[in-house]
Amino acid sequence: MMVLILAVVLIPLLGATINGLFCWFTKRKAHIIAVPAIAIPAIVSLILLARVLQGERFDQVLYWWIPLGDFRVPIGFLLDELSAIMITTVTFVATWIHVYSIGYMDHETPRGYAKYFCYLNLFVFFMLTLCLANNFLLMFVGWEGVGLCSYLLIGYWYEKASAANAGMKAFVVNRIGDFGFMIGLFLIYKHLGTLLFSQAFASAEQLSVGVATLITLLLFTGATGKSAQIPLYVWLPDAMEGPTPVSSLIHAATMVTAGVYMVARTHALFNMAPLSMEVVASIGAATALMAATMALVNNDLKRILAYSTVSQLGYMFVGVGVGVYAAGIFHLFTHAFFKGLMFLTAGSVMHALHGELNLQKMGGLIKKMPITGWTFVVGALAIAGIPPLAGFWSKDEILAGAFMGGHRIIWAVGTFTAFLTAFYMFRLIFLTFFGEPREKHLYDHAHESPPVMTIPLIVLAVGSAVVGLLALAPHGGIVGFLNRTLGEAHEAAGHEGGLTYILMVISVAMGVAGVVLAYFMYMKRMPDPVAMARNFRPVYTLLYNKYYVDEIYFAFIVNPVVGGSRYALWKFVDVIIIDGAVNGVGRLCRLVGGGLRYIQTGFIPDYAWMILVGAVVIYWIGRLF
Amino acid sequence: MTGGIDISIRPLLPVVVLTVTAVVVLFVDVFSPRERESHYGYLGVAGIALAAWFALGLWGKGSLTFTQTFITDKLSVLTTLIYLLIAALTFLFSPGYLHHEGRNLGEYYALVLFAVVGLIFMTSAQHLILFFVGLEVLSIALYALAGFVRQRDLCNEAALKYLFLGGFSSSILLLGLAFIYSVTDTLYLRGVASYVVAHGASSTLILGMSLVMVGFFFKISAAPFHAWAPDVYGGAPAPVAGFMATAAKVAVFAVLLRFLDSAVFPLRSHWMAMVTVVSVLSMVIGNFAALRQENIKRMLAYSSIAHAGYALVGVAAASRQGGAAVVFYMLAYSLMNLGAFGVVALVGRQGEGYVNISDYAGLAAKRPVLAAAMAICLFSLAGIPGTAGFMGKFYVFASGVKANQIPLVVIAVINSAVAAYYYLRVVYMMYMEEPKEEYQIVFHPAAVFALLVIVVGIFQLGIIPGGLLSASYSSFAWFTF
Fold first, then answer.
1. Residues A430-476: pLDDT tens digits?
2. Which of residues 250 through 279 in chain B touch A, CB cutoff 8 A?
3. The complex's ipTM?
4. Are residues A536 and A579 in the same domain?
5. Distance (Å) of CA A441 to CA A332, A362, A425, A445
6. Within a domain: residue B188?
7. Residue A178 lies inside a defined structural domain of this protein
8. Portion 554-593 of A in contact with B at CB < 8 A
């Protein structure tokens, strides 16, 4: 078991190392290393999952990395139902995204190509470390590592100012969250005296409710940064500056779900803090609704998907917030398939249209690129919650959990968001793939992507269609499987009783209604969306400008900080004091270097004199003390 | 045994094996035709392996023999194993290099083996005269090795400088021993300590101790006694420079710890101040001078001065933890420096014509494996987490913090940040610059194998440091620290 786990974690690292150190050598062939470096762990993950299914479990400290008195840093792994599902999802989706990247990145320079695959492998390594860690510190290493890779890949085209800025924004916003996370870790160590999951969770009951609430809120702060929730979601839409497969892997399927995973992993702590659970669920619901409304009017293909991701992450937090942890993770699992798929199809469209992202310039593309178009439709049906596709099962599980747990308002918000989700997704589809082409020359040059890109689309589309059916597997399906570690939800979720069927019908109806409304508005022009926008101009403008949140942040946080920095820090502290000091140090270094050159004459008598003088000084110092 | 003198051959077995191997190498050399390609390196490695096997047998079996002058404790066994590893790696790097220079001769290997014999005597000595004899055995071998490629002027200059300045520092050390003897009437380490406990310190004794320590500082090339190092490392053949920069330093650090602990521990307030000052000077001078070097051998020489400074932080801690950290640090340091000098020897090619940092431009494009090995060694020298260099620094600095040497540790940390610049500059050169030439490097399989061992070692110590650390902890179990 240990060997297999190590293989899963270390093979991607090996791939990253080879492509990193030998980028001059691997160049265009980088994928020959990079793809197997993920595919092999994917297969091994499946073996591990099978063994976990049979009831095996692994939790062991391999060794103590820094044994330092009573503070020791453990390197150890935990494989249970939760981490097994996580690593299987990550490696499976990552494998196909790596394959897709071969086609998508073929215009890059040879070394850029190798660098790209190096970062991508490295990301998977850190993500798997995050999922498999058996202690908070190693988890944090993975947490920071995926953040680093995300930053590097958002800024992959760093010559472009917007890409470099987006990378920076992601980095800074995540720092804010990580700060909370770190303080949470310190508090855990202070109050529980351990950073091992097993020990910390076993003694979680000793915590007072106040401390538990503080710790969990701090942990959740970290989660809002990484998983793009209110108020720290602003970095994710900008992160779309990175290559599209990166958006698909990191900013949709895997990394951004780390926050959800973390909350589920630490459920023993969250169970101690009902207030924190309320906060998680409320923030999740609010984010789901707000992001969905922002997606309604946007015209940028990738940004719509980004808002949709933020919104879906909100659903997952609703799930873990109302105590149906397994449902939240189930949604994470299905979302990885359909959202990964939709980003890849968006990439395929971009590839065909030379980077064009504006929906208003597309239209009718399904005739030119049928595989891309139809796989997108599958993904959209899945996210809209149309049975029997994947999204239906997991979303329904979450909403049912919320309703049964007595969170009626959250349930209502979630259900309404389901309607919005179906609407904006099908608006996107009708504008992109159906109707008349609006830009003739773009349409004329469009072409279907090569098989290396379309095959991953088909695979993920099949996945999006069927993985939800795992809910029907024996012994409670995937939810029952996850509940073996996450504990039975206290509200006794289940599908008994007529009420669940009613809830199910309502949510499906909402999805269908969204699709139908989108069809009438964007295919039949009744009501005409342009007229709607005119009639509801204030609302439209508000949504179009994303509630002015970026502007508000700029006005109240960024600009004061920048202004203060510019006048107080830059003009004075930096230019006069720091630059003065740095230049001074630089000059001093040169001076020291120059002085050292005079010392280093090369003549033996000079050296002998130095030794003698040094000896006198040493003796004198010895006498002094 | 006769006359109550306690003679047991077992503790000496490694030394005997090495000496016999050296003599055999010399004999074979005499009776073989000049133009034949030699395989003395492999013969030497075989001898080293046998010696290591005997040394391992001594682990945990402490003994004090030869009228209590020769100690076999865990510290001496552990350091002996380190010397043997260093010598073996040097032997793997050398044949290809020496073949280029037309100097692949038996005496080279014999000299290295004799040097190791000197090293073992130094670290096992409980009596300062035995220590001095060991030091001279080592030094004379090194003088000859530094000038081994005698047709090269730089080499001769290096040997001559090292000889004169080495002689000068030895005489200072000897003078220090004389002062100590004049006060205490003994040169047994423990004897000195009991005198100090009984009679207290006198200024003559402190003078003697200072002069002895100057001798030590010279050998570890700590500032301000470092001036010879850049010239000698820069001029000596690269594999020899690697051997000098590592083996001698490991030994002198071990002896320094033994001397400070066994002989003059009661005077610790005096020597802690000296060590602290020398540590700061070494770090600052080494790093700042390294910043401006264009010759990679000189850069590595200055870097080794700075590393001596870091390791002295652990000595200044005057604790068992500090001692263990220093031994750990020394092995880490030896691996990464041997690797770096090994790559320098390969890239330098015949006559060491390519030893400027600019000669490494685009090495990664043409010789990816070599560049990767060099990059790993440099990352480790810079102290990037996951490598041996990081762990070494971490333990040394941690011991400094525990001993309340906070200002010293702060200076050390700032210095290691400065140092990253000149190490990573070489990495940048190798990976980011366009290659200017074809790099007609002749690989020698033994050298590649040695690089592999070093890279594995660097990661092993960086990722799983526990084994060596507990071994070096137990080496200091009996220390008074």
1. 888 888 888 788 788 888 888 888 999 999 999 998 888 888 877 77
2. 269-274, 277-278
3. 0.87
4. no
5. 39, 10, 25, 6
6. yes
7. no
8. 589, 592-593
